[in-house]
Design goal:
138 residues; mainly alpha; 2 domains; two-stranded antiparallel sheet; 42% helix
Length: 138
C-alpha cells in the first residue's frame, strides 16, 4: 500500500480506481430526484451529508488501517509527546512504558475500535458539496 507523508507518519492512500465511471442508480419519479440529477450532471456537484444527517453513526467513523503492537505503541507515544511538551524526560519514559504495557495488555484491535470512536476523528470526514472534475453521460 502506498502512503503519503503527513508530518508524523504516513497516511495510507486509497487504492486507485479500477473503473473509469461512477454510477449511482436512483429513481427519477419526483421533481427533487430530477433536480438532484441535474445538479450532478450540469453543475458537477455531489452532495455528502453531515454526520448528523446519517442514519447510522458508524457510517461516519473513519476506517483506520490495522497496526502492529509496535506501530500502535509508537503512534500513541508520538501523539503524547506532541501534546505534552512540558513533560520531563523521566515523565516521558514512564508514560512510554505505560503505553507499551497497555497496548500489549489490551491488544491493538480493542484500541483500534476505541480510536475510531474519538469525537475529533469524526471531523476528518468530508461533508457538504464537492466539486467533480467531470461527469460522463451515455
Amino acid at each position: 500500500m502506498k502512503s503519503a507523508p503527513n508530518g508524523d507518519g504516513a497516511i495510507p492512500l486509497p487504492p486507485k480506481a479500477t473503473v473509469p465511471l461512477f454510477y449511482k442508480y436512483s429513481s427519477l419519479q419526483t421533481p427533487e430526484h430530477v433536480e438532484r440529477l441535474r445538479v450532478i450532471i450540469q453543475e458537477h456537484e455531489l452532495y455528502l451529508p453531515s454526520l448528523d444527517q446519517l442514519n447510522d453513526p458508524a457510517d461516519g467513523r473513519p476506517r483506520l488501517a490495522p497496526l502492529s503492537e509496535e506501530q500502535m505503541s509508537s503512534f500513541l507515544y508520538t501523539k503524547l509527546v506532541q501534546r505534552s511538551p512540558q513533560l520531563s524526560p523521566a515523565e516521558l519514559a514512564t508514560e512510554r512504558a505505560i503505553i507499551f504495557y497497555n497496548v500489549k495488555l489490551h491488544g491493538t484491535e480493542a484500541l483500534h475500535r476505541m480510536l475510531t470512536r474519538i469525537p475529533s476523528i469524526r471531523s476528518w470526514r468530508a461533508t457538504g458539496f464537492i466539486q467533480c472534475r467531470s461527469v460522463t453521460t451515455i
